[in-house]
Design a protein that fits this description.
This protein is of the alpha+beta class. It is built from four helices and nine strands; from the N terminus they run H-H-E-H-E-E-E-H-E-E-E-E-E.
C-alpha cells in the first residue's frame, strides 16, 4: 500500500482498540496480500474480498485497511481455526492465500513480538501463494421468513425444513445426530 506503514498501523490499532501480536499478524498478512495483488486502497464496495479462517484479532486488520466487512459481504468467515486469510481482487480475478507460519522456537515478550512482526524481516513468518478458482459471488439479498417456532424473521438461506415447517437454526429440531 502506498501510505506509510506507520499510518496504516495506527489506523489498524485505532480500529481494533489496542496494539497486540494478533493484530500485528493480521497487519502483515494484509500488507503481504496487498503487495501480491497490487492493492493500494481500501474497498469502497466489494472489489476486495477476504475469506478469513479464524475470528481472532488479525481479522480487524483486513477490516480497517482493506474495507472488508461482514455488512458489505466482502468479509467471509470460513472457521478453521487457522491464522490464514484468502484475498481476492475482483477487477483482476486474482487471489492469494496468506498463512501465518509462526515464529519457530523464538521466545518474545508481547512488545518484542509486535516489534518483530512490524519489521521488514518477518516476511519469512508468512506463506503467500496464488489461489485458483472463482472469486466468491457478490453478496445476495435474501428474503426474511418467520421461523415457525419462535416467529423471528430469518434469512431464507438459514432456515431448515422439518415436518412441513421452516425453522431457524436455534429452533430447528436437529434429528441428524450430528451436532451443530
Amino acid at each position: 500500500m502506498r501510505i506509510a506503514n506507520e499510518a496504516l498501523w495506527t489506523r489498524a490499532v485505532d480500529f481494533h482498540g489496542h496494539a497486540c501480536p494478533g493484530l500485528a499478524i493480521g497487519f502483515r498478512m494484509v500488507l503481504e496480500a496487498a503487495s501480491f495483488l497490487g492493492i493500494d486502497r481500501a474497498a469502497e464496495d466489494e472489489e476486495i474480498v477476504c475469506i478469513t479462517e479464524n475470528d481472532a484479532c488479525c481479522v480487524d486488520a483486513a477490516q480497517a485497511l482493506l474495507g472488508c466487512t461482514l455488512g458489505k459481504g466482502n468479509l467471509l468467515l470460513k472457521p478453521r481455526g487457522k491464522a490464514a486469510m484468502t484475498f481476492y481482487r475482483r477487477s483482476s480475478g486474482k487471489g492469494c492465500r496468506v498463512v501465518w507460519l509462526g515464529l519457530g522456537e523464538r521466545v518474545f515478550t508481547r512488545e518484542e513480538k509486535i516489534a518483530f512482526l512490524l519489521s521488514s524481516g518477518s516476511a519469512a513468518c508468512f506463506s503467500v501463494r496464488e489461489v485458483e478458482g472463482p472469486v466468491p459471488e457478490k453478496a445476495q439479498l435474501c428474503r426474511s421468513v418467520p421461523c415457525v417456532a419462535c416467529g423471528e424473521r430469518v434469512s431464507e438461506t438459514m432456515l431448515r425444513p422439518y415436518e412441513g415447517g421452516l425453522y431457524c437454526l436455534d429452533c430447528w429440531p436437529n434429528v441428524s445426530r450430528i451436532l451443530p
